[in-house]
Design brief:
- It is a single chain.
- By secondary structure, this protein is of the alpha/beta class.
- It has two domains: about 1-80 and about 140-210 and about 305-358, FAD/NAD(P)-binding domain; about 85-135 and about 210-300, D-Amino Acid Oxidase, subunit A, domain 2 (D-Amino Acid Oxidase, Chain A, domain 2, 2-Layer Sandwich).
- It contains ten helices and 17 strands.
- It has helices at about 15-25, 45, 60-75, 95-105, 140-150, 200-205, 270-285, 285-290, 330-345, 345-355, and strands at about 1-10, 30-35, 50, 85-95, 110-115, 125-140, 155-160, 165-170, 170-175, 180-190, 210-220, 230-235, 240-245, 250-255, 290-300, 310, 320-325.
- Strands 3, 4, 5, 6, 11, 12, 13, 14 and 15 form a nine-stranded mixed sheet that branches.
- Strand 16 and strand 17 (about 320-325) form a beta hairpin.
- Helix 1 (about 15-25) packs parallel to helix 5 (about 140-150) and helix 3 packs across helix 9.
- The radius of gyration is 21 Å and the shape is globular.
Length: about 350
């Protein structure tokens, strides 16, 4: 039976970032990443991939700052990565001014403005706006595949392999795969994205109280101008993202459809999705509303307090859950990975001292 030091279940942006963190902290460790489909093909492939320097809580703000520096370093090291810096514009009701200014990091450099681009409705006595910096967006699926490529061959990958069982054994955990193979791992990180209800770990995750919510973004077939940046509508928790390389906009809004099954979603936009999104667009960007006719649909795991969950699931700290990122898996993945590796620090230290599995 194959033995590894660490098994990471989930080959999305969070899982691959965790694998990279473990490989950096324990260079001699054997790391195995397991993905039921292809690397970066689940929620990561459908992600809007927007990073903005903000957070509703102190922990999320700290995580956003950490991740911003992490992605900047990645891009500096490899400018060919599909990460695209973009200007920031925030629009809100004046009643939310203090909330907006508290949510954004100092690095955002928010500055009040008196006017909006002419394709947006003008500011009124009841609205406020800021420009800022520190935003970027990525092709998350492509970035995840690039991270996986950089980890090979030292890190092993099993794609198209479903984890059918997860059992505690003396040396850690034994994982049984859909292929019939069985692997023993000293420690396991569960990073399944919205697949919280998979039989192998459903009972272990239920006490965390995470739920799965639909995520919808519309494609607006209007080319953005070269100077256009992301427009965040704070009160609606929505944003317009210019996908310059695709010559169109993406509009993300907050769906309120809960407890969906990721294996039953078709990926297609329905009439209700379109109506809900257009209601926000007609209020905030009416010139674009008529061009929003298609898009992308998937889901993500959400925590009760809207902070990512990074928790040990056993007393020994050999089994860790990392996820429920509330639609911010890309934005916070580096910080989630650092927290997961910290929970596994004893295992990392032991592997480093012993030189890894032989």
């Amino acid at each position: 039976m194959t033995q590894v030091d660490f098994a990471v279940v989930g080959g999305g942006i969070i899982g691959c970032t965790i694998a990279r963190e473990l490989a950096l902290r324990a260079p001699h460790a054997s790391v195995l990443v397991l993905e039921q489909d292809a690397v970066g093909s689940g929620a990561s492939r459908r992600s809007a991939g927007l990073h903005f320097p903000r957070g509703a809580t102190e922990r999320v703000r700290r995580m956003a700052g950490y991740s911003q520096a992490y992605y900047r370093a990645l891009l500096d090291a490899d400018p060919a990565l599909p990460i695209h810096p973009v200007p920031l514009l925030v629009v809100s009701d004046r009643a939310a001014v203090d909330q907006v200014e508290a949510a954004y990091l100092d690095e955002a450099g928010l500055s009040r403005v008196d006017a909006l681009p002419d394709w947006l409705p003008p500011l009124s006595d009841e609205t406020a706006a800021w420009t800022g910096e520190g935003c970027q967006y990525a092709d998350v699926g492509a970035l995840t595949r690039a991270l996986a490529r950089s980890l090979r061959p030292r890190t092993s990958f099993r794609e198209g392999v479903f984890v059918a069982s997860l059992d505690r054994v003396a040396s850690g955990y034994e994982l049984g795969f859909s292929t019939g193979e069985r692997v023993t791992a000293g420690s396991v990180v569960l990073a399944p994205g919205p697949w919280l209800a998979a039989p192998a770990w459903r009972e272990r995750l239920t006490p965390l109280g995470a739920r799965v919510k639909k995520v919808v973004a519309l494609h607006i077939e209007v080319p953005p101008a070269a100077e256009d940046g992301v427009v965040v509508f704070h009160d609606e928790d929505a944003f317009l993202l210019p996908l310059h390389e695709q010559r169109r906009w993406l509009f993300s809004y907050t769906s309120q459809v809960w407890d969906v099954d990721p294996d039953r979603l078709t990926g297609s936009v329905c009439a209700a999705d379109l109506a809900d999104a257009r209601e926000v667009l007609f209020a905030r960007a009416p010139r674009l509303a008529g061009s929003a006719r298609s898009g992308r649909v998937f889901c993500d795991a959400y925590s009760a307090n809207r902070e990512p969950l990074v928790r040990a699931l056993d007393e020994e700290g050999r089994l860790v859950f990392a996820g429920a990122a509330n639609g911010s898996g890309y934005r916070l993945a580096p910080a989630i990975a650092a927290e997961a590796a910290h929970l596994l620090r004893r295992a990392v230290e032991n592997v480093s001292d012993q030189g890894g599995q032989q």
